[in-house]
Specification:
The structure is a homodimer of 191-residue chains. By secondary structure, the first copy, chain A, is an alpha+beta fold. The first copy, chain A, is built from 4 helices and 12 strands, in the order αβββββββββαβββαα. In chain A, the strands form 4 sheets. Chain A has a 4-stranded mixed beta sheet, with helices on both faces. Chain A has a 3-stranded antiparallel beta sheet with strand order 1-2-3, covered by helices on one side. Chain A starts with a helix and ends with a helix.
Chain lengths: 191, 191
């Protein structure tokens, strides 16, 4: 069950006239709200999901770390940056950087000494409240006894040189929005 | 009611063991599927939504066209590129470029003579099948009698110089993922 700030926001925003919870799931909730938007009453189907993090990680030999996994929603295997949803701890979302460090270690068995925040982005603000916090992680060190992967995740780890990544990006073989934002940010900001 | 290819994919993928439709809405459907992923049975909450388009449009005096609107899901007014969901026509999704041309005209009263495709991206592939087709549109001409805006949309049109856009991007004031992808793409590829 998801009980947190965002849900309360859905229900209590000054613009909400009525709210009906349709579904209360493990990773998402669904609401149908009647909203008063600039004087007009409109019905909106809204999905609530925890915020998440994504980590663009560079190995000491300048490779970028990707995870490849099957994504049921799109029925494809996708190349993505390490990522995950932010946990609730006693009713509050944990710090995004704490999630980022944990997800990097769980998914890749790396820890990073250096973290830079790229920014915060809404992935589909027309219907979904999911916000992603994106980071660049450098100075990676492999961990001997890393945090275990989630039991229901089957992830393949792939480390690629810059030229290979550029080619994947240019040919639209990287289709995950968060991963594209982080890679383009890196290309625009590298020294 | 949404009846289309993606829904069929959700239900018939070789990996689906059982599927239950929880909700059948105006802009999204919700399923709970049991999936066989690499020999492991896992339960997944999946949201089906129509694919969409986004248009990064440049006026003849080199300004970029944004729409600012209230987004109930995130309870914020966001600066975004013109965008919209792809219609179903006789059970098939229309060509994304047709949607892009219509949405640009409806939301901005511009038509464009020159269209370049940036790519196709999944905005949240962990739970949502939504795919976005992104374009750059140039050689804009203002239309005297444009297609009308959707009745339940309240949109403010804003045209900004490159320097202003760069500042918004750098300070994370543009939070919509699709808009960030398109702006970064333009910065990486401009002549």
């Amino acid at each position: 069950m998801l009980t947190d700030q965002s849900k309360i926001k859905f229900q209590n925003s000054g613009k909400v006239v009525t709210t009906e919870q349709i579904f209360n799931g493990h990773v998402l909730d669904l609401y149908v709200n009647k909203m008063d938007i600039d004087g007009q009453i409109v019905e909106r189907e809204l999905v609530h999901r925890h915020p998440g993090v994504g980590v663009l990680a560079f190995t000491p030999d300048e490779k970028i770390v990707f995870v490849k996994q099957y994504r049921p929603a799109v029925d494809e295997y996708l190349m993505e940056m390490p990522a995950g949803l932010i946990d609730l701890v006693e009713g509050e979302f944990e710090e995004p950087l704490i999630t980022a460090k944990r997800e990097l270690e769980e998914e890749t068995a790396y820890q990073a000494a250096n973290w830079e925040k790229i920014g915060e982005f809404y992935v589909s603000p027309g219907a979904l409240d999911e916000k992603l916090h994106l980071y660049v992680a450098t100075d990676l060190v492999r961990v001997d006894n890393p945090l275990p992967q989630d039991e229901d995740e089957q992830i393949e780890l792939i480390e690629l040189e810059k030229a290979e990544v550029l080619n994947l990006l240019k040919t639209n073989q990287i289709k995950d929005a968060k991963t594209v934002i982080a890679l383009q940010y890196w290309l625009l900001n590298e020294e």
